[in-house]
Design a protein that fits this description.
- With about 260 residues, this protein is an alpha+beta fold.
- The chain has two domains: about 210 residues, q2cbj1_9rhob like domain (Jelly Rolls, Sandwich), CATH 2.60.120.620; about 40 residues, no CATH class.
- Helices cover about 30% and strands about 25% of the residues.
- The longest helix is centred in the N-terminal third of the chain and has 18 residues.
- It is globular.
Length: about 260
């Protein structure tokens, strides 16, 4: 990783990688997203409380092609450089936001407490991939920049100190951020849909982040590449329950 990029993340808690997906690749991935939503909207896509979003957090089951995004070399290399340790997948969700009429609003939050033992105070990195163009006229992702050496403040004080950055970009844009930094989706009156893939990466020496995403045995047990098997080797209880129900043995142990 370029030292300037690392320092920017250290000073702000996020980093834009630019438009990593373009052309035919972007078209194919967007088609996969739309097909998943059309096929599975009745039973795999669920509303997210307080966020004006629906999500499918089991795309590894319904759309295996999402791995092209999850294991994109530049995303993995940058994330591993920030976390400072071999990576594992903790969660992946496809998210959709409908057009909206009404007042703009946000729901500020931090996903987890800061990990004070880490030089960037981050235990997990969230990668946000836009599959639709995002600008001032659409829904977007917003963050209140925070340096890794600054005092951790409550919402009001942090917004006063750090302000708000709305992250815009064309479809295919990727943003990495520390999920412990204050952030929100920004809901705007817009006729435009928002489509995104949101991936949570962790370290293999740390516990799983959430219980939302099933890690299929074809990835942690059967994949021919040992590095891929290791990447999917930190299971959550949901993954373990499904693996056991379908007769899998030698399930990776919890940390």
């Amino acid at each position: 990783m370029d030292p300037k990029d690392y320092d920017f993340f250290r000073q702000n808690g996020y980093l834009t990688l630019g438009q990593l997906f373009t052309g035919k690749t972007l078209t194919r991935l967007l088609a996969g997203f739309d097909h998943d939503r059309e096929t599975w909207s009745g039973n795999m896509w669920r509303p997210l409380t307080g966020s004006y979003q629906t999500a499918n957090c089991d795309p590894l089951v319904t759309w295996p092609g999402v791995e092209e995004i999850i294991r994109h070399p530049q995303i993995l290399a940058s994330t591993e450089a920030l976390l400072g340790s071999p990576l594992c997948l903790s969660e992946v969700c496809l998210r959709h936001m409908r057009p909206y009429e009404g007042e703009s609003w946000r729901h500020w939050h931090r996903d987890r407490p800061h990990w004070q033992e880490h030089p960037l105070r981050t235990q997990y990195i969230h990668a946000l991939i836009y599959l639709a163009d995002v600008d001032e006229s659409t829904h977007c992702f917003s963050i209140s920049p925070e340096a890794a050496n600054e005092p951790i403040l409550d919402e009001e004080a942090q917004l006063a100190r750090g302000g708000i950055v709305d992250l815009h970009g064309p479809a295919g844009t990727v943003v990495l951020f520390n999920l412990s930094v204050l952030h929100s989706a920004t809901i705007r009156p817009t006729p435009t849909e928002r489509k995104s893939v949101q991936i949570y990466y962790g370290r293999r020496d740390q516990p799983h982040l959430s219980d939302h995403t099933v890690l299929p045995a074809r990835l942690w047990r059967d994949h021919p590449d040992a590095q891929v098997r290791a990447f999917y080797s930190v299971p959550n209880p949901k993954s373990r329950a499904f693996a056991k129900a379908f007769g899998a043995e030698d399930i990776p142990q919890d940390l």
